[in-house]
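Students often ask why inverse folding is considered easier than folding. One informal answer: many sequences map to the same fold, so there is more than one right answer. In these notes we will look at a single instance of the problem. The structure comes first.
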């Protein structure tokens, strides 16, 4: 691929990213006219293959779970990985016209991290207060399952006002999370959990607001 082709490909990606951001902004601008609540998710530090493909030097290396390499995991023992995650959130939550405005709940994912329990819990203590400066934070439950020994304590500023989707009692026990002080949303996967497939931008907007 020559240099001109590379530039064209990069421009095409940037244009698609801007289209996505404009679509999200439009969804949230028109949210008051529908009956649904929308919560945008940037799923880290696991399930992050779209990021670790771009920054492979920040992924977990030489670790397996059920014989599968953890290539979709950010390496939280690497300070540069945590810095990059903050930059990703900054790109959507800060600036004069952020994609996720101050009224938007931002979902940080934070589930099914298999690499290192201590670094995960330290990450929760760091990333939640960071994102909370601009937006209410929501995450998937994982704190029951992901524990070092003895467990790294979760700080109060990573709990107060934070929402948890209780998607699995094995990953996050509802009573434990309630006693810790989290705001809880029951989305137990066996009964109340729907993963949508690909949807066009136009169809999304049509479903969100009837005119």
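Output (designed amino acids):
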């Amino acid at each position: 691929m020559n240099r001109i082709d590379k530039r064209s490909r990069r421009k095409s990606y940037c244009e698609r990213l801007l289209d996505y951001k404009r679509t999200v902004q439009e969804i949230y601008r028109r949210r008051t006219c529908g009956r649904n609540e929308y919560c945008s998710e940037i799923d880290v530090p696991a399930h992050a293959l779209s990021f670790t493909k771009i920054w492979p030097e920040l992924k977990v290396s030489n670790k397996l779970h059920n014989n599968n390499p953890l290539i979709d995991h950010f390496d939280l023992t690497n300070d540069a990985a945590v810095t990059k995650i903050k930059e990703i959130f900054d790109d959507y939550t800060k600036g004069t016209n952020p994609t996720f405005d101050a009224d938007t709940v931002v979902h940080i994912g934070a589930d099914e991290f298999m690499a290192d329990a201590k670094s995960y819990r330290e990450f929760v203590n760091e990333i939640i207060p960071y994102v909370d400066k601009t937006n209410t934070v929501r995450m998937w439950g994982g704190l029951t399952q992901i524990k070092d020994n003895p467990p790294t304590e979760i700080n109060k500023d990573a709990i107060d006002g934070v929402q948890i989707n209780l998607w699995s009692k094995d990953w996050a026990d509802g009573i434990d999370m309630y006693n810790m002080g989290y705001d809880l949303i029951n989305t137990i996967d066996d009964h109340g959990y729907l993963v949508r497939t690909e949807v066009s931008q136009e169809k999304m907007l049509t479903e969100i607001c009837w005119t």
